[in-house]
């Protein structure tokens, strides 16, 4: 049965996750909040939707000023149309005056790869972030690509079935960032349903 096989894969992934890497990102997020830095979530495709959701959670539950460039479709498409796909994220971050107090949080299946021409906009944004001295973290699939090479810390979603890299990577982005916003080091606001006692 496919459902049983797919869910078994999720169990294998949970068992293989590096918990120390998760805790390292939590500590870096705490530092960003203490420095009153900002958090910029970058993701493309399904990871862009995850970035939007993560922005909400980190702002509302954790109290970190957070943004995602892909939330403003007008600016995003104007920049793509006028300047091209590769520079869209880096140029957006430049207008936001990304600095050493801030953090880039990459949500990506592959992490960017210029040789294969996959997510070159993430690669350009990462280079810009490094140049500005920003912290870089990520939740990534496969080998993490360019992001994993530049990141201060990242969580790699283990590949347990090469036919399901994308669905598992994007699903576990949500699992792990929800773990982070629920973490006692970061959580400052009680979520609604947890505040309602029957």
Descriptive labels:
198 residues, alpha/beta, Rossmann fold, 9 helices, 55% helix
Please provide a written account of the structure:
- The chain has 198 residues and is an alpha/beta fold.
- It has one domain (16-185): 3-Layer(aba) Sandwich (Rossmann fold), CATH 3.40.50.
- It contains nine helices and five strands.
- The protein has a five-stranded parallel sheet, sandwiched between helices.
- Strand 1 (38-42), helix 3 (46-62) and strand 2 (65-67) form a beta-alpha-beta unit.
User: Biggest β-sheet, characterized?
Assistant: 5 strands, parallel
Q: Supply the number of helical segments.
A: 9
Rg calc: 17 Å
Q: Approximately how much beta-strand content do the residues carry?
A: 5-15%
State the oligomer. Answer: single chain
Superfamily (CATH H level) name: Glucose-6-phosphate isomerase like protein, domain 1
Helix content range: 40-55%
At the fold tier of CATH, the topology name is: Rossmann fold
Instruction: Name the structural class.
Output: alpha/beta
Architecture per CATH nomenclature, i.e. the level-2 architecture: 3-Layer(aba) Sandwich
Strand and helix map with partners:
Blueprint: H1 2-16, H2 19-34, E1 38-42, H3 46-62, E2 65-67, H4 73-83, H5 88-95, E3 103-108, H6 120-132, E4 135-140, H7 145-150, E5 153-156, H8 165-182, H9 192-195
Parallel strand pairs: 1-2, 1-3, 3-4, 4-5
Helix pairs in contact: 3-8, 4-5, 5-6
